[in-house]
Give the backbone structure.
Amino acid sequence: MKYKHIKWLILITPSVTIALWEYIRHEFLLSYISMELGNYLSPLLVFIVTLLFVRHLFSILERMQVELRLEKTKKAALVEREKLARELHDGIAQSLFLLSVKMNKFGRKNELEQDPDFQRIKQTLQHIHEDTRQAITNLKYLPDKEPLNWTEAFYQYVEEIKNHHLIDVHLQWEIQEHTLTSKEKIELFACIKEAVMNVIKHARTNEIWIDAKETDDGWHCEIKDRGIGFTDEMIGHNRGYGLQIIQNRAFDMGWKFSIERIENETIVTLKKECT
C-alpha cells in the first residue's frame, strides 16, 4: 500500500463512516432507533472505526516512515563510505604505490636487495599497502539486505582469512552471542583480527588456533600460533606487532590481556572476569 493512499484513507475514513451510518440509520433503522440515540451512536461508531481501522493505518504509516529514514541513513552512509574509499585510493594508496616504486629503485641503485633491514622495510611497506587496499575494498562493499549476526560475521571472517591468506585457522568458538554486549563484540572482534594479522605478517607460519569458551565468571579467548615467536624484550615492553593496540583495547574494556611463549607456541590471551 502506497504512502499517499494511506494518507487519503486516514482522511476520508471518518467521513465515509458517518455517511454510511446516516444512510443506514435513515433508510433502515428509524423505526428502531430514535434520533437522539442515533446522534449519540454516531460519534461512538466513528471512534470504534478509528480505533480499529485508522489506528492500523497509522501504524503502517509510521513503519513506512521509519523504513524510509533507515533507507536514507543507509544511503548517506554508503555515499560517505564511497567518498572515503575514493579519497584513500587517490591519496594514501597511490602515495604508497609510488613510495614502493621509489624504494625498489633505491634498493637496486644501492645494491640493498640482500640487506635484511631493507627487506624488512619493504615488507612493512607492502603490508601497509595491502591493509590500505583491503580497507578500500571493505568500504566499497555493499552490505547484504539481511545483515549477518555477529557470530556469522565472525565465521565469515575466518573463511576469508583461510581463502585470502592460504592459512589454516583451527577455530573452536564456544562463546554464545548473547553473552557479549554490543561493544564487547566490536572490541573482541577487533582484538582477534589484530592478533591474527600479526601472526600472518610476522610469525612465518601457516596455522592459527583460535579457542574461546565461557567460564563461570566470564569468558576466555586465546589466539595461538607456532611461528617464530617473540623475544622476551618484545613481550615485556609490548612493542611492535600491534600488541599495544590489543592491550589498550583490553584495558579500556576491563579485560585481562597477556602474551606468552610456551615451548613452541605463542599465545595471546584475552579474558573477562565478572566481579
